[in-house]
Amino acid sequence: MPELPEVETVRLQLLYHLPKKTIKGVEVFHSKSVGFDEEFEDTFVGKTIEHIDRVGKLMIVSFARQRNLFLLAHLKMTGQFFFVAKDGELSGGGHSMTEADVRGLPNKHTRVAFYFTDGSALYFNDMRLFGYIKRASKEAVERARAGFGPEPIADDFDCEWFAAALKKKRTSIKAALLNQAFVAGLGNIYVDEALFRAGVRPTRRADKLTKAEAARLCRAAGEVMRESITVGGTTFQHFVDTKGENGNFTKQLQIFGKQNTPCITCGTTVQKIRVAGRGTHYCPKCQK
Ligand SMILES: [Zn+2]
């Protein structure tokens, strides 16, 4: 499953291509992908894309002169967006991109296609059909936004608020960080990385962290996500961004997936356990 940095990478690249494009035609190949919305195709013809925003891993597309019409898009396990310019140049982004994914678009995994008046097109491919691109009202967008806490990568993320809020959490710090309603955007990989950098053990109770630990963790969470976005996310299962480039944050992972190998800081063997139902990696010496 793509994590937030990957989704942000895709969003930034869609943002590069899509604003000001007017939709000439829409083709829905699988109605589950649009929430069985029978009016989906007709609704978007003639609309001009204004902006692509994001909350958590949900992308929000807005349209010029439309205050109550949005698209909510989630890649889930296997969703991909491919933008094809009018000269045929392809930019692809999403999960698990192989050559077969991009052959002859639209192809058997294409669920929705948008054709623009300038001859370019956007394809939503999703092999496993867990992803979606759905019509939404302003109210639905606001509801979706309300389900997410602030993001550690936001400029105004407040580390003092974070430290105070942790004091009310009686779960493990790992579970607290995975809870998107508390802080949005940290998935399993980035939680492990942030906890390692901060020297905090994933099993610690969130409300027992010291002020200094909470401050270190706050900084580490922002850093690890920003670094990942700059390099285009992690390359699990050939994740490719919308320019067709592999994300290479995988090379910079310090603890995730490093079980049974020596810790890069102290040489102690990295452990893998289950915390909050997720595979969790930590160094028993560096993380207290
Ligand atoms: Zn260590």
SS field, number of helical segments: 8
- DSSP strand content: 15-25%
Overall pLDDT metric: 90
CATH fold-type name of the largest domain: N-terminal domain of MutM-like DNA repair proteins
Overall spatial form: elongated
Assign the CATH architecture of the largest domain.
Answer: Alpha-Beta Barrel
- What is the end-to-end distance? 29 Å
How many independent structural domains? 2
DSSP summary, beta strand count: 11
Looking at CATH, the homologous superfamily of the largest domain is MutM-like, N-terminal
**Helix percentage range:** 25-40%
| Element-by-element helix/strand order | HEHEEEEEHEEEHHHHHEE
Largest sheet: 5 strands, antiparallel
Structural category? alpha+beta
Cα radius of gyration in angstroms: 20 Å
> What strand line-up does the widest sheet have?
1-7-8-5-6
Low-pLDDT runs: 235-239
Bound molecules: zinc ion
CATH top level assignment of the largest domain: Alpha Beta
How would you explain this protein's 3D organization?
This protein has 288 residues and is of the alpha+beta class. The chain has 2 domains: 4-146, MutM-like, N-terminal (N-terminal domain of MutM-like DNA repair proteins); 159-282, Helicase, Ruva Protein, domain 3 (Orthogonal Bundle). Helix content is 27%, strand content 23%. It contains 8 helices and 11 strands. The strands form 3 sheets. Strands 1-7-8-5-6 form a 5-stranded antiparallel β-sheet. It has a 4-stranded antiparallel β-sheet with strand order 2-3-4-9, with helices on both faces. Strand 10 and strand 11 (278-282) form a beta hairpin. Helix 1 (4-17) packs across helix 8 (211-230) and helix 5 (159-166) crosses helix 8 (211-230). The protein is elongated and about 60 Å long. The two termini are 29 Å apart. Residues 235-239 have low confidence and may be disordered.
